Every structure is written in C-alpha cells, then in structure tokens.
Amino acid sequence: MQFISHHRSPSVDSTQVGYWLNLTRAIRSDLGIADAVAKGLTVRAVEPMAKLLGRELIVGPNALLSRATFDRKTKEDKPLSKDTSETLYAMARVLSALSRVYHEDQDAILRFMKGPHPLLEGRTPYEVARSSIAGAEVVLRLIDRLDAGIAA
User: Fold this and answer.
1) Where does the Antitoxin Xre/MbcA/ParS-like toxin-binding domain lie (predicted)?
2) Where does 26-119 show beta strands of DSSP type E?
3) Is 25 exposed, middle or buried, given 0-12, 13-18 or 19+ CB atoms closer than 10 A?
C-alpha cells in the first residue's frame, strides 16, 4: 500500500512566482510558468532573486547557478536546462510564499532566508531550499507553519 500525503502545498501566487522568475506579465499564469520552466528559463530569470538575496547566492560557487553556466548561457543566448529552471522555480515558490507571509517586506524575507533556523537543524532556509526541490518543499512547509502561527 502506498502512502499518499494529504498535506497541502503552501499557497503560492503564480503572479508572484512569475515576478521572482522575471517572466513577462503575459506568462505569469500557472500554465505559462510551467511551459517556461519546461522550455528552460532565460538567464534573466535570476535577476529578481539576485537583487534580493545577493548575486553570490544566486550565481557562483554554492549558488543556484554556477558562474560558468551563467556566463555560457548569457553569451550563447540559450535557455537554462530544465533541471536548473526547476531549481529556480522551486526557489521562486519559496520567495513567493515569503512575500505573502511578510507582506513583501524584503528585509524580513532576507532575514528569514539567511538566518539559521532551529527547525532546520541550524541551517538557513536558503541552504535547505537550494539543496533540492525536496528541500524547497521543507522550507515551504516551515513557511506554512509560520503563516499559521505555529512555532516556526
């Protein structure tokens, strides 16, 4: 028998996710975002995240995107891989949820993402979210708890 989780995924706004992925307003729908991720996002997708979190957390060593990949894709004007696009999408979902919880207060979002968290064994939400899509889901559930007022 397979276990099926009935935990709802934290609420995210496709318009906000689209903003964090630097997508045009015309494709900031759930389906438009899914299509853009499947085709591969452009390197411009990292700009809003880099502006908030700092470029070194988005492009560089131990970041969402290696400097070599960023430079190559920029030079070639080619889309990012589907895997990289999905990683950026997962981080955009986290930032979208935080935007909702913190009423778009970027200082509060930054403090949450960069501060060690006891429920993440002292790791930062950024570290956990960037580690994998499953890690991003862990952070989304933590944000859900925060939003619900449960000790987060």
Assistant:
1) 104-149
2) none
3) exposed
Q: Which of 144, 89, 141, 152 is nearest to 115 (CA)?
A: 152
| CA gap 96, 109 in Å, rounded | 10
SS (H, E, C) 10-45: CCCCHHHHHHHCCCCHHHCCHHHHHHHHHHCCCHHH
Q: Detail the DSSP E strand segments found in the chain.
A: none
Give 3-30 pLDDT, tens digit per residue: 334 444 556 788 899 999 999 888 888 9
Nearest Cα residue to 44 out of 80, 81, 90, 89:
80
For residues 107-116, average pLDDT: 95
Neighbours of 93 (CB within 10 A): 27
